[in-house]
């Protein structure tokens, strides 16, 4: 019988992001990020919600960390807000912003929780958008690296686990659209597909320069990772022919061939470049060397995937649409596909040939239609069902020898879900936004049990 026991040193954690939980958008010198501006644009966010208060974590972090400690986690992934640290995007460092993260990290360490800091989770300074159009300009890569230097030189004595950038595809390809309007994220409609690909190329440059900056600025030995939401191709069944098709399809699914491939292999996927043709980004001499930095780990954000089968087509495979009745959680895109975790890790090891690289699931979780019952509880058995199946798939990857070293559940608490505002809840802690009361859900207790036993329960 499978007992789903994980190795002794397996890391269990939870994750959040600055703009989604902090609030306090005008305090201690912070200036607007592109998300503040996007939220202020009528019609962009469901119900006109904004991140102005969010979970008020900026003021309540001590109580939140105490709650985290009660969950038994020893690892916490959070992000640092660029516009708190360098409010104008470049230039003067705002020490009051640094001080907040010092207090946060000191509090975490006081509860024996290791901080894992993401240096960029979508909230670039509005000042840089005004100055040169954010990710449309190569200049942002250098400004990002300067911001990284400012953070790591000041916090590197406390934080040794760094992640450069979160989900490049989301703030570039979902923010800059060609022939689509409105974008999901702050950005704009551009005049060609090539311009969209140029934005993700600039983000990759920022990642590369960021890696160099972390290593140059850190006062101690540290770990550097990239976090990507790869588009996972899952074979319709695990026969050799469909597995081969899923591996071929991984190159051209989503933006894989132009994001995770150059970051981990030093080259855009030839299959992707062929598909893009004239739409491929301009790549300057030396760019790929900058982008392809040595990494200590790769972080994978995996929620769902795409079924693939072998087909008699030019490419030899086809992507399959989900049938109408296919089960999903409380998001249009959140089809329940637990094997996506296993295949995501396997693709990094085999399809990209990087089985030398430790992998972490840096986000996995789901939105559910949570309700507080008459006893003041949230019994989210649907979320427990989802998590149990996905973590079992993660266990399969470990059992088969793939280098998965840890799992960070998204999210520690309900928060500002970007364009969906406060309508969709991903937390294992319920947040009553009118009172800021925290209610641990049934899934909180379930995850606590997994952590305590170091296995899927």
Write the layout of secondary structure elements.
Elements: E1 11-15, H1 18-21, H2 34-39, H3 57-71, E2 75-79, H4 82-85, H5 95-110, E3 114-118, H6 126-132, H7 139-155, E4 161-166, H8 168-172, E5 176-177, E6 188-189, H9 193-217, E7 223-228, E8 233-235, H10 240-250, H11 260-265, H12 270-276, H13 287-291, E9 297-301, E10 306-310, E11 317-319, H14 339-351, E12 359-363, H15 381-399, E13 404-410, E14 429-432, E15 437-440, H16 442-453
Parallel strand pairs: 1-2, 1-13, 2-3, 3-4, 4-7, 5-6, 7-9, 8-10, 9-12, 12-13
Antiparallel strand pairs: 10-11, 14-15
Helix pairs in contact: 3-5, 7-9, 14-15
**Taking strands numbered 1, 2, ... along the chain, how are they ordered across the largest sheet?**
1-2-3-4-7-9-12-13
The third-level CATH topology is TIM Barrel
Helical residues, percent: 25-40%
Task: Provide the structure class.
Answer: alpha/beta
C-alpha Rg, in Å?
Answer: 21 Å
Number of domains: 1
Mean pLDDT score:
98
CATH architecture title: Alpha-Beta Barrel
In angstroms, what separates the terminal alpha carbons? Answer: 14 Å
Biggest sheet features: 8 strands, parallel, barrel
> What low-confidence regions span 5 or more consecutive residues with pLDDT below 50?
none
CATH superfamily: Glycosidases
Count of helix runs:
16
- How many extended strands? 15
> Outline, from the CA principal axes?
globular
């Amino acid at each position: 019988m499978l007992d789903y026991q994980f190795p002794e040193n397996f890391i269990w954690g939870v994750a959040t992001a600055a703009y989604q939980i902090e609030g306090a958008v005008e305090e201690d010198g912070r200036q607007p990020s592109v998300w503040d501006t996007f939220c202020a644009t009528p019609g962009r966010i469901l119900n006109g919600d904004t991140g102005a208060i969010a979970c008020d974590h900026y003021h309540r972090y001590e109580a939140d960390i105490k709650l985290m400690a009660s969950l038994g986690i020893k690892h916490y992934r959070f992000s640092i807000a660029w516009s708190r640290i360098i409010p104008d995007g470049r230039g003067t460092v705002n020490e009051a912003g640094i001080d907040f993260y010092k207090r946060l990290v000191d509090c975490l360490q006081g509860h024996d929780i290791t901080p894992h800091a993401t240096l960029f989770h979508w909230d670039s300074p509005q000042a840089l958008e005004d100055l040169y159009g954010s990710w449309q300009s190569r200049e942002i890569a250098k400004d990002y690296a300067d911001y990284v230097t400012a953070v790591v030189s000041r916090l590197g004595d406390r934080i040794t686990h760094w992640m450069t950038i979160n989900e490049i595809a989301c703030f570039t390809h979902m923010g800059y659209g060609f022939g689509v309007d409105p974008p999901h994220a702050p950005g704009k409609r551009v005049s060609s597909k090539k311009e969209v690909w140029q934005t993700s190329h600039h983000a990759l440059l920022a990642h590369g320069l960021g890696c160099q900056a972390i290593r140059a600025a850190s006062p101690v030995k540290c770990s550097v990772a990239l976090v990507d939401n790869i588009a996972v191709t899952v074979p319709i069944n695990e026969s050799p022919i469909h597995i081969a098709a899923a591996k071929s399809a991984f190159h051209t699914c989503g933006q894989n061939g132009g994001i995770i491939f150059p970051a981990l292999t030093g080259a855009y996927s030839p299959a992707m470049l062929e598909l893009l043709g004239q739409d491929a980004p301009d790549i300057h001499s030396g760019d790929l060397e900058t982008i392809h930095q040595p990494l200590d780990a790769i972080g994978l954000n995996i929620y769902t995937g795409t079924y693939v089968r072998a087909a008699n087509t030019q490419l030899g495979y086809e992507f399959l649409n989900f049938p109408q009745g296919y089960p999903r959680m409380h998001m249009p895109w959140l089809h329940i596909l637990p094997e996506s975790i296993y295949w995501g890790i396997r693709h990094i090891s085999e399809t990209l040939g990087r089985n030398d690289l430790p992998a972490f699931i840096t986000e996995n979780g789901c939105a559910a239609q949570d309700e507080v019952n008459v006893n003041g509880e949230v019994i989210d058995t649907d979320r427990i069902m989802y998590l149990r199946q996905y973590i079992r798939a993660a266990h399969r990857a470990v059992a088969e020898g793939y280098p998965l070293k840890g799992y960070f559940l998204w999210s520690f608490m309900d928060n500002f879900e970007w364009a969906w505002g406060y309508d969709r809840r991903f937390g294992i802690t319920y947040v009553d936004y009118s009172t800021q009361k925290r209610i641990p859900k049934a899934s909180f207790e379930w995850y606590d049990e997994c952590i305590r036993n170091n296995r899927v329960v």
